[in-house]
Amino acid sequence: MKNLFLIITLVTFTSIFAQVNDSKDVPFIEVIGTATQEVVPDIISIEITLSEKVVNRKNYTIVEQENNLKTKLNALNISLDKLSLSDSNSIILRNKRRQTGVKLTKEFILTVNTSEEVTSVFRALNDININEASIVKTESSKIDTIRREVRIEAIKAAKEKAAYLLEAIDEELGKPIEVKEYLGNNYGILAQSTNTIINRPNASFSQDLSGFNQINFETFTVKFSYYIKYAIK
């Protein structure tokens, strides 16, 4: 009985070992395919800070500024639903170690979709003496679709590369053995974040925009690479 068990064990082990060897003996080619796409942002977040100030020797209150802001947005056909309250707080100003006063502020986030709207908004802010504003974030509403498209193109690029390289030596492309989203110089490293989907410009537009024509945004790049190991027929 012991001899029978030993024979079965040896046969099973030999079979597994043979399968492993067969897999290792398959000729293969390794390639990396990369695809990129330039993306124009269509979600632009503008942070607008209202603070109590004096304009033309008169107090310009936060309430007046907010009313003027909403009036201007209506005039630009920008829905007030795109304007949300970010924070309302008191900032304690300090001069070295001595408290010197309290400055009340009210912060809003306005979301627009085009560079034309951004330009119009900053011109309007300039007209109503609201100068504390900046673009804090730009995004694409189609980023999920774009990611998918770029990933597919990267896979196709890898397959095309493998095919023409093998054709040059009169060989044929077989089935993929291994596929990995690739980042860096090591095949074993999987991509955790291989593309940029959000751009956070630090630009502030508090200056006079009366003579400014257009605010333009730089595109950002979505990029994916894939490592693929193909069998050779």
Helical content class? 25-40%
Order of the strands making up the biggest sheet: 5-6-2-7-9
Class by SSE composition? alpha+beta
Low-confidence runs of at least 5 consecutive residues: 2-21, 93-97, 185-204
Count up the helices: 4
In this structure, how is the largest beta sheet organized?
A: 5 strands, antiparallel
Average pLDDT, to the nearest integer?
78
CATH class descriptor of the largest domain: Alpha Beta
Quote the CATH topology of the largest domain: Translation Initiation Factor IF3
For the termini, the CA-CA separation is 45 Å
Description of the molecule:
With 233 residues, the protein is α+β, with helices and mostly antiparallel strands. It folds into two domains: 27-42 and 140-204 and 213-233, Protein of unknown function (DUF541), domain 1 (Translation Initiation Factor IF3, 2-Layer Sandwich); 44-139, Alpha-Beta Plaits, CATH 3.30.70. Helices cover 33% and strands 37% of the residues. The chain has four helices and ten strands; from the N terminus they run αββββαββαβαβββ. A hairpin with a 2-residue loop joins strand 3 and strand 4.
